[in-house]
Amino acid sequence: SGRKKTREVKEENVTLGPTVREGEHVFGVAHIFASFNDTFV
Question: Which terms in the GO cellular component ontology are assigned (predicted)?
């Protein structure tokens, strides 16, 4: 059952990978927008 557990964890990482990247991308854009606002003001 040890191998099966490792396989399940790998599948979870593959599924969570893209979601985390999207979150980082959105956060990065929001951070740039906030910096632009500070510079504009």
Answer: ribonucleoprotein complex; ribosome
Q: What is the pTM of this model?
A: 0.22
* DSSP for 1-41, written as a single string: -HHHHHHHHHHHHHHHHHHHHHHHHHHHHHHHHHHHHHHH-
**Domains of the chain: which residue ranges?**
1-35
Cα–Cα distance, 2 to 5 (Å, whole number): 5
1 DSSP 8-state letter: -
Residue 2 has, within 13 A of its CA and on its CB side, a CA count of: 0
